[in-house]
Structure formats: structure tokens, C-alpha cells
Amino acid sequence: MVAALSHINLNLFPVLASLLRTNSVTKAAVELGVTQSAVSHALRELRIVLDDPLFVRTARGMAPTPRAVELESVVALALETLAGGVLAAPCFSPEKSKRRFTLATNDEVAISLLPALVQILETEAPHIHLAIESRGLDADLERLQRGSVDMVLGLKPSGSTAGLVLDLLYEDHLVCMLRKEHPAVKTRLTMKKYLSMPHILIAPGRGPGIVDDVLSGMGLSRHVLVSTRYFLSAPEIVAHTNCVLTLPARLAEVMVERLPLRIFKPPIEVPPFRVYRITSKIRGRDPALRWFSDCVARAGQQG
Questions:
Q1: How far is CA 56 from CA 28, 43, 44, 61, 74, in A?
Q2: Both 208 and 264 in a single domain?
Q3: pTM above 0.90?
Q4: 197 and 221 in contact (C-beta within 8 Å)?
């Protein structure tokens, strides 16, 4: 195996890993601390060695080929294993580190968690870089397994959790939100009023939400006037209309500080839900990730 690699410049593979993370020669050069021409030269060599274009230009930038996507997890794991066994220091110093951490989550969790998390990072690790992104829970979990992201925050996966570590971050429940001067509700939101109003549905996926499932079980239904996958847009709509919104309590508490809104107890019993901190078992011994996981846990407790 070693002999088979003897003719390949192994320095090319950190460049490939960076290109797969950034999909950009410019961003990869910045991340690696080299020139753009050096990255372009490495990419040309990689294309020859691997006999594949690896990246093609599209209207939205560079897109990896199937061969490049196939190599992503292999290269990430190989580099991490090498760094962990040969180069990594036995401990992690957050105050000195310039590490980049990638956190995958939706905007609802980000809104309720990030202010506390960034306060912790600003104090304890002022030189690190935190990147927030998400391609949907299933895609995020796949990228976590490949090493493309460091942590996923979200609901418990519906599929297999093999290779994953799930730690409860916090538990939340649903509340209802109306504009402050809503003409139909003063002190209590009754079932009759709730069902008579137009609803805003936050639906990151497709199909009905948990509220609709509960109502269906009671032989009832509601009229959803607007459905949106964006948690920030829904409270804005409610603040300027007579619609009602059912949303997580942690997010509602943030929104009432920004907009003329009021929080009400829902007229239906909806079970609470749990948000998990999800990491990869393969990377469980990384001291930097253990420290970062602790920071996320502390931020989650502050909500």
C-alpha cells in the first residue's frame, strides 16, 4: 500500500480537502495560507493523479464531481487520523487556537443558542472561527459522518444513529404568538378562537406539522394561510397581521423582545421536544471538539 502511494505527492490531499470544504480556489488559498496559483497548480496535479476533473464550474461556482464527493470522507478521515496521531498536541489551548469549527443547525436553534455560545467563544477562544451552516438534518448528518462538519444540532434522527453520539442539549415546548393589539384575543386563547384564525406554519420540511397531527387526532383541523421554512419570517408576518403562530418557546421569548408580539398558552396539548448535540464517534477523542462540545452544552443551558 505504501509503495503504491510513493509516486503521489501527499501534500496535494490537504488542498483537496480544503477545496471540498470551500468549493473555491480563493477560499481554499486563504484557509491554507498559500497563494491562489499554488492551489490551482495542486488542483491540476490532482486531476492528473486521480484522472478526474474533480471540480467543474457552474453558475453557482465550483461543484465537485461524483469522484470528488466519493473521496471527501476518505481524505478527511485520513488527514484527521494523521493529524491526531502525529501532529496534534496532547492538549488544546482555546485561548491560543485559530481552529475553525463548523456547526450545522437550523435558524431556530441558531437564534436561541448563538448569542450565549458566541459570548463564551469570545471570552475563551477569541481567535477561533465558527461557521454556521445547514443543508437539512439528513444531509448535515451525512456530512458529519464524512468529517465535513464538526457538530449537528437538531432533533433526534429518524433513521440509524450508528456512528453518532447524541447528547441532550435542551428540551423545549410550543407556545402560540399573536400581535399585541390582536382584536380577538385579550387574555386567553381558546380552542374556538385558535381554529377560527388563519395560521402561519413553520415547516422546514414538507407536509403538515405536529400541531396538525394533534388536531387531526382530535377530529379537528386549522386553516394554514402561509407556510414557510424560515423561522425568522413567521414572527414578522404575525406582528403585522391577525394570524396566529405556534412555535418553540425559546424562539418566542427572543421574538417578543424585538417585535410587538404576545405569547399565549396553546389550547391543545402538544408534547415537548428535545434538541440534541450530535457528534461523530470517530472524532470523540479530539480535545478541541471536546472543548467545543462543552461550550455548546453550556450555551444550551443558558436558554
A1: 16, 12, 12, 8, 20
A2: yes
A3: no
A4: no
